[in-house]
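A.,

Following up on our hallway conversation. Structure tokens first:
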């Protein structure tokens, strides 16, 4: 196997990258390359133009801007893992990133690439959706912001149009009383691909759940929000949710009922439903504990 010939571009500005993408009939953006280069080598894809984003430092920053955490699309997963800013404000993002692949892959793979690949088993998408993240998209006409929950159209299909570049992910800073957690299950301890995953955020006020979001991964064509689980936990006391096995099992069953799993080599649909129920209970317990001890910082 070999990579077919293509023109390699390394623009110095984001505007130049957008222009190159628009000028090409089948141009593709190159971020970390951990998916694209493999697909090119295996002949699954071919492009006349490959446009690298590796000379664009404005896409590599992690900043707090106003009431939001702004993560550049070219930030690597290991940058998410080790960033003091991420750990201070949204450590659950670091935890999700740390569960991805291996140290070597995390050093190259980017959060923007992970989202744009749009694999149903992607690990960053569920926690970012649970946190209410949005994506910034740039094109020749300017820029727009889209909720991440609306970014995924189908398995490996996003809302990006021709000429669009995902430039950043914007995560609202959590108010006091918010906790978040991410749990996944894979078939091995290292470099595992999610068989199922669940991210949970909860907002606790006066020791009751005022708001919550359950987001599943690898059990539907796109990351899936569970409305049934939210309906069950809203208004419940933290004490009841942490102590009542029957209640948490009901929540887990609600998440599983909202899943749309398939049978594949990594597990049957029924197995995924059972796993996602367990992961939901674990994530909920962890998120609740963190919300009660957060003091305004999402541990």
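Then the amino acids I'd put at each of the 299 positions:
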């Amino acid at each position: 196997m070999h990579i077919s010939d293509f023109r390699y571009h390394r623009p110095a500005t984001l505007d130049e990258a957008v222009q190159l993408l628009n000028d090409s009939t089948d141009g593709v953006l190159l971020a970390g390359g951990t998916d694209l280069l493999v697909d090119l080598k295996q002949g699954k894809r071919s492009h006349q133009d490959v446009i690298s984003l590796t000379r664009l430092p404005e896409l590599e920053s992690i900043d707090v801007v106003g009431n939001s955490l702004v993560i550049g699309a070219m930030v690597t997963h290991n940058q998410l893992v080790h960033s003091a800013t991420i750990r201070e404000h949204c450590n659950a993002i670091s935890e999700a990133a740390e569960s991805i692949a291996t140290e070597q892959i995390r050093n190259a793979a980017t959060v923007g690439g992970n989202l744009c690949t749009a694999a149903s088993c992607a690990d960053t998408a569920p926690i970012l959706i649970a946190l209410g993240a949005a994506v910034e998209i740039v094109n020749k006409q300017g820029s727009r912001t889209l909720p991440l929950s609306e970014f995924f159209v189908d398995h490996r299909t996003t809302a990006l149009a021709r000429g669009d570049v995902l430039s950043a992910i914007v995560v609202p800073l959590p108010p006091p009383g918010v906790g978040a957690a991410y749990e996944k299950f894979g078939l091995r301890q290292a470099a595992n691909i999610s068989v199922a995953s669940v991210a949970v955020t909860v907002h606790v006020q006066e020791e009751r759940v005022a708001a919550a979001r359950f987001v599943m991964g690898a059990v539907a064509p796109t990351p899936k929000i569970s409305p049934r689980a939210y309906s069950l936990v809203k208004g419940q006391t933290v004490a009841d949710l942490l102590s009542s096995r029957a209640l948490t099992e009901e929540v887990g069953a609600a998440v599983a009922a909202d899943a749309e799993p398939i049978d594949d080599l990594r597990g049957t649909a029924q197995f995924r439903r059972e796993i996602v129920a367990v992961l939901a209970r674990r994530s909920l317990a962890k998120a609740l504990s963190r919300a009660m001890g957060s003091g305004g910082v999402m541990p």
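The longest strand covers residues 196-205. Curious whether your intuition agrees with the design.

B.
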